[in-house]
Design a protein that fits this description.
Blueprint: H1 7-21, E1 24-25, E2 32-38, E3 41-44, E4 50-52
Antiparallel strand pairs: 1-2, 2-3, 3-4
The structure holds zinc ion (ZN).
């Protein structure tokens, strides 16, 4: 089933994807080790703290 996305939608999806795979600074240990664990769950790889945050972006 072909899915057609408009140009703007595609750019949004790409930006969201880049944010979702980026690493963020952990508020607990202040190391750049936060990675997305599932849709709105972010986990620190160093201290194993988990945070509920944005679906595509850690804030
Ligand atoms: Zn941490």
């Amino acid at each position: 089933m072909p899915i057609k996305y408009g140009k703007k939608i595609r750019e949004k999806v790409r930006a969201a994807h880049l944010k979702s795979v980026a690493r963020y600074k952990c508020p607990e240990c202040s190391r750049l080790a936060i990675k997305r664990a599932s849709s709105a769950i972010w986990a620190c790889k160093k201290c194993r703290a988990t945070f509920a945050s944005g679906t595509y972006e850690f804030r």
